[in-house]
Design goal:
The complex is a heterodimer of chains A (213) and B (481).
Chain A lengths: L2 H22 L3 H21 L3 H26 L3 H4 L7 H19 L1 H4 L1 H4 L11 H10 L3 H22 L13 H6 L2 H4 L17 H4 L1
Helix pairs in contact in A: 1-2, 2-3
Chain B lengths: L11 H20 L6 H19 L6 E3 L4 E3 L1 H27 L5 H18 L4 H20 L5 H32 L4 H10 L4 H19 L7 H8 L2 H7 L2 H17 L4 H22 L6 H21 L3 H28 L15 H4 L1 H15 L5 H15 L3 H26 L14 H19 L2 H12 L2
Antiparallel strand pairs in B: 1-2
Helix pairs in contact in B: 1-2, 1-4, 2-3, 2-4, 3-4, 3-10, 3-11, 3-14, 4-5, 4-11, 5-6, 6-8, 6-9, 7-11, 8-11, 8-12, 9-10, 9-13, 10-14, 11-14, 12-13, 12-18, 13-14, 13-17, 13-18, 14-16, 14-17, 14-19, 14-20, 16-18, 16-19, 17-18, 17-19
Classes of the chains: A mainly alpha (213), B mainly alpha (481).
Chain lengths: 213, 481
């Protein structure tokens, strides 16, 4: 076993173990942290395969941004776990059988017989001046430009959907909104009104009021 | 690297839709307060403009652009025109329904328009990536549209179920794509077909991938045994959204089925044909029996939709151009009939009464004889009774199956069609023969709805009297390629 293979197996084992821990640990915060480890080890595998740009993006985007956000959500929501885990053991045996059967069949297809080194050949080893970033970027903005724009549309739809589903339009009485157009356009004459008033002349109080009562 | 700027002209309808949808999205925040219906009219106009551009540049030959990721042919153009036609009807019915149910909002129309864009992308997809992106744009819009009515628990539950199962189906579909890519090394559909035909690809991996792709598509189309979401989602969603879900996306769903199986993997026909046969036969049988016991009309129409998917797959399993053409015809007819069926529910619903139970239709003949007759046409067309268009749709798919040599499937199809006629006729019986105490006349809330629902229903009759032009259109568009 070469040193590269050794590293690969360590990273792969870490990915599998942490993936397993994600779905078995009770505490959701710990599960999220295990998921972070799974991402990091997968990023390591990618870097081993000379896809260093993808590996770094995985760490930056998923570990750095998505998972941190996810952790915040998990901590803020404080989900009741006992309730979520109900029925876990009830379906465990059936689920396990299905999972093992699926795994067995997938192994037959995805195993060394069809994806082994003899079938696919050894991966190409690139020289030091090979840029993984350019290899991804050039097709992304040229041959796959149409798909790239569509992916942007998909994100836009996601934003519209998320906002449409969460925005709360509260009654104007409840919240005071600023009307910036109105504020900017305001002139002194709108706010200040000069009123011409008659001079007030004090009248004498009726003197005999008390007596009349 | 040499890069030639691709031709943009074939994609003008998509670009118009995207530009208009983005414009309306922003404009809605400004004009919606002053002009309530501005967004609605802008949406309808965008659809008409997109339709106009398709008509003026109607493709008679296959045009491929964007480095093989986009295809424009008469198959795509005809399906897009029908998607536009159906969507015009959907938004027409939706407007009044949203007003009545008090959740009229610009987002509904914007998301609907984005959904139509997604369908266009699906219909014109020429590689795995665009096909997947189109499917996701459409699905994401639909998930959000179902949940737009946040005060309704049933709608939110339906959206959640659809979202989770839809995401699962997408995962399965993508897994299948990755297998095919792994075996062939290509994502462009005709190239995949070529590599499969040359026999260089690993057949085990290919058939493994095909299984996942067919299952993913079956989920999206709602074929048995992947239909569990359909009744709950159709029932829980607001009727206007059910109208959207149950009509135009089925045309797009058929399109990607055709693109993937017939254009991408004709060499694997022995693998996917068996799967389609199982899905088709099970869908027809399950829908025929389960729909009988439904009390809610939307639920019943969901099961009837499952049955229609079964019939549509009959044309696909014939695995020849004539079979695909018959399935294409079926998908168009099914979408138009769906607009009429759900449109009728919307036309009769009003604030506080969804009018979606079969019991609501009791004695409709005494309350509004004209709409009762229209409903009779819709139900007869769905059941496949001549001279309505639904009859011809069923006849030609069964004919193609017989021609392809699957007599036993044709026999099952005819038997299930007869059984399913029972539940359609049950609605007709409720309308004409059941007595109801409340005999006050019932008219749609606006005359617009009355006209719309009458127009669509009469179209079913008129198309049924002269179906040949529509059938020819389908056969020609597939034959051209």
């Amino acid at each position: 076993m070469t040193f590269e293979q050794f590293i690969f197996y360590v990273l792969a084992a870490m990915a599998v173990v942490s993936g397993f821990m994600v779905i078995t640990v009770r505490n959701p915060v710990k599960a999220a942290l295990w998921l972070v480890l799974a991402f990091i080890s997968t990023a390591g595998v990618w870097i081993m395969a000379q896809a260093e740009f993808l590996g770094l993006v995985l760490i930056l985007v998923y570990v750095g941004a998505v998972m941190v956000l996810f952790l915040f959500v998990v901590m803020m929501l404080d989900i009741n776990l006992a309730k979520l885990k109900e029925g876990f053991t009830r379906y465990l045996s059936l689920g396990a059988i299905a999972a093992i059967a699926t795994f067995g069949m997938m192994y037959m297809v995805l195993g060394p017989a069809h994806f082994g080194l003899e079938v696919t050949g050894a991966p190409v080893v690139h020289g030091p001046d090979y840029s993984n970033t350019a290899a991804i970027a050039v097709p992304l903005y040229t041959t796959h430009a149409y798909a790239f724009v569509l992916a942007a549309v998909l994100l836009l739809v996601g934003i519209v959907a998320a906002i449409a589903l969460t925005i709360r339009r509260r009654a104007p009485k409840e919240v005071l909104y600023q009307n910036i157009d109105k504020q900017v356009k305001t002139q002194a004459s709108d706010r200040l009104r000069m009123v011409k008033m008659e001079a007030v002349v004090e009248k004498d109080l009726p003197e005999k009021e008390e007596e009349s009562k | 690297m040499n890069f030639v700027i691709p031709a943009f002209a074939p994609a003008i309808p998509e670009m118009v839709l995207l530009a208009m949808a983005s414009f309306i999205l922003v404009a809605d925040t400004i004009w919606s307060k002053r002009y309530q219906f501005a967004t609605y009219y802008a949406t309808q106009i965008s659809l008409l403009v997109a339709g106009y551009f398709i008509m003026t540049s109607f493709a008679t030959t296959q045009v491929i652009t964007f480095d093989g990721s986009f295809v424009r042919d008469s198959f795509a153009d005809i399906l897009k025109l029908f998607i536009i036609l159906v969507s015009l009807g959907i938004f027409l019915f939706s407007k009044e329904y949203l007003l009545q149910q008090k959740f009229f909002s610009g987002e509904y129309f914007v998301l609907g328009l984005f959904g139509v864009l997604g369908m266009f992308v699906m219909v014109s997809a020429h590689n795995f990536i665009t096909l997947y992106l189109g499917l996701e744009i459409m699905s994401l819009s639909m998930y959000a549209m179902i949940a737009l009515r946040r005060d309704s628990g049933a709608a939110v539950e339906a959206a959640m179920k659809y979202f989770v199962l839809g995401a699962l189906a997408t995962g399965i579909l993508l897994y299948g794509f990755s297998m095919i890519y792994g075996a062939t090394g290509s994502i462009t559909l005709p190239e995949i077909a070529k590599i499969i035909d040359s026999g260089k690809a690993d057949t085990v991996v290919l058939s493994f991938g095909v299984v996942f792709i067919v299952i993913g598509l079956a989920f999206k189309l709602g074929a048995v045994p992947f239909h569990m979401w359909m009744p709950d989602v159709y029932h829980g969603a607001p009727t206007a959204v059910t109208l959207y879900l149950g009509t135009a996306p089925k045309i797009a769903g058929f399109a990607i089925l055709y693109r993937l199986l017939a254009e991408g993997m004709p060499g694997l026909v022995s693998d996917w044909q068996t799967l389609i046969i199982i899905l088709s036969v099970l869908s027809m049988i399950v829908s025929a029996f389960v729909a009988i016991v439904q009390e809610n009309l939307k639920r019943m129409l969901a099961y009837s939709g499952i049955g229609h998917v079964g019939f549509l797959l009959l044309g696909v399993l014939a695995a020849n151009p004539d079979g695909y053409a018959s399935a294409m015809f079926y998908s168009i007819v099914y979408a138009i009939t769906g607009v009429a069926g759900f449109g009728m529910i919307i036309a009769l619903s009003r604030t506080g009464n969804e009018f979606d139970k079969i019991a609501d239709f009791k004695g409709l003949n005494a309350r509004n004889p004209w709409l009762a007759f229209m409903m009779l046409i819709v139900m007869f067309s769905m059941a496949g009774i001549p001279p309505f268009i639904g009859f011809f749709a069923k006849v030609i798919v069964i004919e193609e199956v017989v021609k392809a040599g699957f007599i036993w499937i044709a026999v099952i199809a005819v038997i299930t069609a007869v059984i399913s006629a029972f539940y359609y006729l049950r609605v007709v019986k409720a309308i004409y023969f059941d007595k109801v105490e409340d005999e006050t006349p019932l008219t749609p809330v606006s005359s617009e709805l009355n006209w719309a629902v009458s127009l669509v229903s009469i179209a079913l009759l008129v198309l049924g009297l002269m179906p040949s032009s529509l059938i020819e259109l389908s056969y020609q568009s597939i034959g051209v390629q």
